[in-house]
Amino acid sequence: MKEIAIGRSRFQFVVGDITAQDTEAVVNAANSRLAPGGGVAGAVHRAAGPGLWEECRKLGGCATGEAVISGGCDLPNRYVIHTVGPVYSGSADDPVLLRSCYLSSLRLADKKNIKSISFPALSTGIFGYPVDQAACVAVKTIREYLLGTTGIETVRMVLYNDEAFQGHLSALDALKCRWESGLI
Fold it and tell me: Which domains does the chain have, with CATH numbers?
């Protein structure tokens, strides 16, 4: 695990299972229907049990870059925040939409007074976003958010393997050099 302090919050990086985190909320890398599927969405729905799909059907879906919230059902988390990341196309819209996923999720967590939240590496699985590029967007967006007014105490990036973990630490190191030198 790697942890840094940002403002009054902790920003953590771990390799692990998003469905086994002890945070108040976990983020589901959802599809627009919020349906069970592959990757993170499939894992979250399997671990949460059929009650999650029942609740998600009532939410009516979610647009790319936005977020909605449900209960955690059989997960160890009180909430699941569902966000739909962009399918990577190499266009200028990709980082804008990915940034929006993180911001929408963090804002929703603050609105619900959630103190701790775990994110997967959004859009880097079957949606094809290159890990190094997605990591830069995630780290920069979360850092900026935590420097603002927030009640969130812990944000954890739960990475699915060592390559994704190292990619996020590299993004953190590159960004840290820029903020320590006063470039951002």
Answer: 2-180 (3.40.220.10)
CA gap 150, 10 in Å, rounded: 12
The two structure tokens encoding residue 181: 């030198």
Tokens at residue 102, please? 């993180």
Identify the CA nearest to 77 among candidates 104, 109, 107, 106.
109
Statement: residue 141 has pLDDT above 60 = yes
Residues 6 or more apart whose CB falls under 8 angstroms from that of 120 comprise 18, 27, 29, 40, 157, 158, 159, 160
pLDDT in tens, 30-62: 999 999 988 999 999 999 999 999 999 999 999
Helix, strand, coil abundance in the chain, percent, nearest 5:
40, 20, 35
